Amino acid sequence: MASLRAALASSQTPPELQAVEYIVDQPSLDTKNIQSALETLKDHAQTVPDQNDQVARLAAIASSHLYERLVDSILYKRAIPRTRDVEYWDSVLYAGPIGLATFAVQSAPRWLWATAFSTTSLSAPTAVLFTNLYAAVTAPLSPAFAKSSWRNWRNWRNPTGLIAAPLNVVRSHVRKNRKHALKKKHQAAEQLGTLVLNFPSKTAATDPTQALFSSLAVLKSVLKSSDIQADASVPADIVEAIDQLIELSRSKLETDPHEDLYRVPSVLIRYWPLLGVAVMGGYKVLGNWRAIIMWTKDHIVDTTVSLWKNWILSPLYKVYQTIRHDEDAQLSIMGRQSLQSDMSSLERMVVDYVSQNSSLDDASVEQIRSAVSQGDLSMVLEQYEKQLETPIKSIVTGKLIRSLLIQVQKTKVDVEVAMDGYDRLMKSQQLVVVLIAALPALGLLWWGYNATFSGRRDAARLRLMSNYKDEIKYGLGNLGMTIRSAEEHSHGPQGPLSPLYVGLLLCQTVNLRRQGPYVFSKRRLQQWLAQLKRIDNSRDIASVEQALRDIWLEFGPDLK
């Protein structure tokens, strides 16, 4: 259409029609602007008959806008919604007894309301009423009625038949809805295919009047098939053609008054059972609200707060204190003054012990203290060896016991010296130790972040991509079935596509275009759209089959 409008816009336009040309040269026009432009062209054609060629050219451009709006209306308001209706009824049938029972529960209020409304609006004529009464009275006398009644009685005696009877009624209702939706879908697809196959070509630009008349004929044929009272007469001149275009622009695609009964039920109808359960559950919850709050506080809130404080905040705060070099947070295995006090006690014990056995001056005392601080107890051990020569005497005098106690104190000091070394090592690696202690808290925080943000987002993205891949494979499968059906109706793969199958293929490729960006990268998406465009531009079955095979070969690995 854009190329046709560009070709038609190549000729000179009179000044009084330049405003109309500016309007119709827009990429897209709504119905109101189309009608306004056509009204202006009609008035100009009546007042200035000599410029009918220019008027026909602009009217042909306006008709192309009307053509496009009709294509969009049929595609997005009829064909695609009816396709979704058929898919919904198929899903109900394929779900088996559970799906049928669920649908029956969902639709029960709607059926009851429709039944009550139809009962209150009954008004049959008296003659029809008496005819029906006569038929009801005489029917039991016929042999056919007796046979059918006996067969129905035997069926009702079967418990399985009693259970399946309501589901059979629901199944019949669903099949009826599906049949009607499929009929509407095929009707819209055929209209769409008629419009696509009769697009005005670039060659129509050489004869604007012929382009106008051909577009008008196609529009009238499509709207006539939609039960719209379109004028079937052939226009005699440009003015009459524009007048018919104005009437067509004012008409709308009529809808079946009972079409809502065959569409996908509304969200309220489908989910009112869950809504009722939620309301009843909410009522029960409100009745025990205080007990639920107490249980939640005791078992969930307190546990969560304790976990947060003891296993997350506390380890992280210790890491913070270590980095700040807080003296109160220093790791320590033993007290700071413990080693010093034990060392001083050992020195005094050794000095007293040695001074009792020999006289010491101040220099000797300092020398002994220095030796003890270095771990040298040779002066005590020399006396200890002499005491072992006379153990009983040494025990009675207490010297041997005293020397043993000094050695015990020495052992205690040695242990504390070792512990002090280990304590210094821990203090030098305190940050590492605290970080290891905080690993559970950090791991818990990381897990919570992934579960809340990153993990859930990635999982949702992968799940969404998987769903769209399934939708694309389902759409390609529908394309294959549509091609096989077209081949059966045309008695061979070399036959042309009828308007019905052109419209069906266009509906399916539109859905595939919408799903492509969720699965393919930008570069692959361009190739995907190019392959779908091949299908849209194909007018014979063999070309569509080849394009579909190329799609499976090129994009099949991406859809696994």
Automatic annotation (TrEMBL):
<keyword id="KW-0496">Mitochondrion</keyword>
<keyword id="KW-1133">Transmembrane helix</keyword>
<dbReference type="Pfam" id="PF08637">
    <property type="entry name" value="NCA2"/>
</dbReference>
<keyword id="KW-0812">Transmembrane</keyword>
<dbReference type="InterPro" id="IPR013946">
    <property type="entry name" value="NCA2-like"/>
</dbReference>
<dbReference type="GO" id="GO:0005741">
    <property type="term" value="C:mitochondrial outer membrane"/>
</dbReference>
<feature type="transmembrane region" description="Helical">
    <location>
        <begin position="431"/>
        <end position="449"/>
    </location>
</feature>
<keyword id="KW-0472">Membrane</keyword>
<protein>
    <submittedName>
        <fullName>ARAD1D13068p</fullName>
    </submittedName>
</protein>
